[in-house]
Amino acid sequence: MLLHEHLPHGLRQKLRDEGMVLREECMGSHHEQLDLSLRLEHHPPGQPSALVAYLDYSLYDGVPSIQMIRCLRPRRGWATVLVEHLQRMNPNCGIRWGHLVSPEAVAWHASLSFETTDSVHKADFERLADLEKEKAAASAVICPGGVFDPTAWSPELAEKQLRLEDEIDGLRWTLRDRQPTFKRLRLPEEINSRPDKTAEANPAPHHRKKSSP
Ligand SMILES: CC(C)(COP(=O)(O)OP(=O)(O)OC[C@H]1O[C@@H](n2cnc3c(N)ncnc32)[C@H](O)[C@@H]1OP(=O)(O)O)[C@@H](O)C(=O)NCCC(=O)NCCS
Q1: If you take atom 22 of ligand 1, which residue's CA is the nearest one?
Q2: How far is the CA of 189 from the centre of ligand 1 (A)?
Q3: Shortest CA distance to 87 belongs to which of 30, 8, 195?
Q4: What pTM was computed for the model?
Q5: Whose CA is nearest to atom 26 of ligand 1?
Q6: Is 9 found in the same domain as 88?
Q7: Do 166 and 88 sit in the same domain of this protein?
């Protein structure tokens, strides 16, 4: 699948100028997991095309996990283009990075810019915390100082406790593998649109202009 219509204008233009095509392939699927590959190819006019970089990843429960990233024409920003695209396509979750063992992969990851962002589950985590407080308050009425007080007990209070427990259990189950915030890769179009004095003084390396492929 060709992805160019999903790209920001500047990147689409850069790819066109450099004769690059970005596309995605589905390599397989099993047990609700999709194995996908983002592939960047150089298509020079009248010559055979060549693979420039690829990012193999799996998608499970909506979360992308990098399996392998490789650039065959290094230090031109192409690996960064791929991973930024992955984040752009999955705006509501953090990327799982796997083991970046090679020294160049570690240096590359260190060059990327991240920010902590609220996840779509943040409000549910807050609701869970409120319910737990409410449940603790109800328990404190029935068991002041940790001792059951039969005179404080009432059917209404017992019903309230049951309702709170039900809702708490439901939310805990829904949120079991979720986080209230996640670490998101900052995208160049966002970095450029923010008046950030430090970024101006010390531009992120992967947003420098790259030359020929
Ligand atoms: C890691 C890898 C994917 C990076 O690809 P790339 O296209 O060269 O990366 P980029 O051009 O986007 O690099 C962006 C920045 O990362 C840093 N960086 C990348 N490679 C680096 C290296 N070898 N040494 C130091 N810094 C490096 C630099 O800051 C670079 O910006 P600059 O070139 O303007 O200085 C590539 O080196 C590779 O394919 N390595 C072999 C496979 C591998 O180890 N994969 C990871 C295991 S999953």
Answers
A1: 104
A2: 21
A3: 8
A4: 0.83
A5: 107
A6: yes
A7: no
pLDDT in tens, 122-163: 999 999 999 999 999 999 999 999 999 999 999 999 999 999
Q: State if residue 10 touches ligand 1 by the CB under 6 angstroms criterion.
A: no
> What are the backbone dihedrals phi and psi of residue 42, each rounded to the nearest 5 degrees, phi first?
-95, 125
Pair 76, 102: CB distance under 8 Å: no
Q: Is the CB of 81 under 6 A from ligand 1?
A: no
Place of tokens 């999709």: 34
Domain containing residue 65: CATH number: 3.40.630
- pLDDT tens sequence across 57-72: 999 988 999 999 999 9
Q: Please check whether residue 132 lies inside any domain of the structure.
A: yes
At position 53, the amino acid (one-letter code) is: A
Residue 111's contacts (CB-CB under 8 Å, 6 or more residues apart) are 80, 204, 205, 206
Task: Give yes or no for residue 105 CB within 6 A of ligand 1.
Answer: yes
Residue nearest to atom 39 of ligand 1 (CA): 70
Beta-strand runs (E) in 61-144: 63-71, 114-118
Residue 212 included in any domain:
no
Residues 164 and 190 placed together within one structural domain of the fold: no
Number of domains the chain contains = 2
Which phi and psi angles does 101 have, rounded to 5°?
-90, -30
Is 209 touching ligand 1 by the criterion CB < 6 Å?
no
Q: Of all protein residues, whose CA lies closest to atom 47 belonging to ligand 1?
A: 100
The CB of 75 under 6 Å from ligand 1? The reply is yes
- Tell me if 74 CB under 6 Å of ligand 1: yes
Q: State whether the Cα torsion 46-47-48-52 is positive or negative.
A: negative
